[in-house]
Every structure is written in structure tokens, then in C-alpha cells.
């Protein structure tokens, strides 16, 4: 159970509590019925390889706040921001500050699956819920751990059948050597093998590249060439995705179809330029999805960030704010870490720019995935929606 962690409240002018010395810092009463200010922690990669991803997470959450008067559930929000960096080594001390010094009532964000795994015990001990907004690995203890994005294995799982049907021959699997890479690429290879697909890799084992130090992928492309692969599946994001895609189109395997997760998502597409043309990606969001929530979201995003394309990262973080908004409102006058966690579990359907979704038993979305391909959209490149893939979740 989560113990009660009540937020600090600004007292009305002139109101003094008798016996204030006996009052607890973390359990004060509302004054004159005014809604208390809640401290929400945001942890994301604001520097390092995944800076672009972390920035989109932050922008998505802040966009929701700006559209709702900087309030969630009727409460003003004091957003405490910390830098996750490149992984657990920097994520844990940053999260520790948010928990112990800033005393946030809930935490959101987190780019890396390895960071989630490392931070989760800290949050569990402090009894603070995590409404994560990027990939998440499998965890034994799910109490208080939610994600509005996906399980890290979901993207690969969603596209495995499509690739099996379209590619006439073995597929080469390659990815970064860390927890997020294992989960992301493993989602594909596990499902692909289950449905009878064959990997071109030696011994049927995924090729892992050192992370984050790998910037030259050409030696790995030589291995792919010699394998006789008819397609490649991978996962890279941020700067690593830019390096991978640019070098891929300069290599001897440039004509081998390239499939992946997040290779061309967000600002990296502009940096990749024409090298990204024809790349296929699986994603739970596309800016051209035709639904009312997406039209509103895209319009608001483009007004605030006219030079940036809305991304799945931004949508997941926007949805994390929406989840907190509803959960805090449902908690009524008793807003604690415990009641927020309880109410998140009762939310049911979430109306999102990506379409309707809901939390599954694993505290991650049950949602539809889409196949996209980089094509010219007028004078600009875009991740163009090709077709629906599978609905993934449990």
C-alpha cells in the first residue's frame, strides 16, 4: 500500500494555524477551500544521446499543462525537472533528488528502459507512483509503476508478422547493447521466431553494438552484407539513429529494406534528410491519424512548436499529463501518492491523439500500432501512414 503523502499548501492571507509546531510538513489542510499546489517530478534525457527524445517528453507534458491553465485535477502544478542523462548512472541520483529533496507526489517521463528498472526500487521504497512516458522493461513489482507509452518489446512484436509476410528470406537483427536495445529488438526476434521467421545473424543471435559509444556502423553493415539478409530490423533513437540511417544509405546494403522502431521519429528525421527515404518504422502514433483528439493536439503543438513535428514521445507524455489530470480529479480532496496510484488503476478508456487506449494488466497501454514509411509530403519528408498493424497489450 502507498502511505499518505499530502501536498504542502499555501495558506490564505492572514490565516494562522494554532499549534503549527505540531503540524506535519507533508500533511496540511487546504485553506479557505483553495486547491493545493502539487509537486510533480519530470525525469528525462535533456542531455546525451537521447536528448531529442527527452526534450519531446518534456514538451508534450508542458503542452498539456499550458492547455489546462497549468493545473491537473484542478490543482496548480509545480513541475520539478531533472536530467536523466544517458542511463541509470545519472538517472538514479536525479530521481533521488526529486524524491528526497523536492518531495514530489508523482513522477513522470524517463526515456530509457534501463533507467526505469534502476529508478523503480527507489520509487517503490518512497511509495511514489511513476507515470512513465517512454519504453518500459518487464518488472516483477508493478505496484505504482505505469507507462502511457508501451512495453519496450511492443514495437517489434507489432511488426513481426508484416515483415514475415513481406520479406522473402532471412532478416538481420541489430541493436544497441543495453537494456532498452535488448527489449526493443527482442520483441521482434521473439515474435518473428514464434511465427516461423528466420534470422540471417550467425547462430540466430542479434548483433549488439556498444552503447552509447558506437558512432561508426559501417563495420557492422559489412557483416549484414555477408549474411545474405533480405531485410534488416533494428532499434535506435536520437543521435544513434541519425548516425545509423545516414551511414546505412552510404553502405553496400543501402538497397536492403530497413525496418525499425523510432529510427526516423521526431527531429532526427530532419537531420537524416534524404538518407531516411523509404525507411519503414512501426509506431503507436502518426501525426496524420484522423481523430478529433489528434487534430486538437497537432494544432496546439504546431502553434507552440512551429518548427517541430509532433512525435510519439510527445503524445505519450501529453497522455501522462492527461492520466494524472483525471486521477488527481478523481482523488477529490484526499490527493496523496496513494490515492493517485489507486485512481490511475480505475481510469478505463483514455482518449488520446493516437486513438482510444487503456491500461492492461501489465500497467502499459493496450493499443493499436501502425506501419509508416518515410516519403515526401510536399517539399518535406514525413513518416507517412501506410497501414494498421496489430493491437498489442495484455
From TrEMBL:
Family annotation (InterPro entries): BCAA_transport, Leu-bd, Peripla_BP_I
Gene3D superfamilies assigned to the protein according to its UniProt record, in alphabetical order: 3.40.50.2300
Segments forming domain Leucine-binding protein: 37-378
Keyword vocabulary terms for this entry: Signal
A Pfam family: Peripla_BP_6
CDD domains linked to this entry: PBP1_RPA0668_benzoate-like
Leader peptide range in chain numbering: 1-23
Family: Belongs to the leucine-binding protein family.
Entry protein name: ABC transporter substrate-binding protein
Species of origin: Dactylosporangium matsuzakiense
Lineage: Bacteria, Bacillati, Actinomycetota, Actinomycetes, Micromonosporales
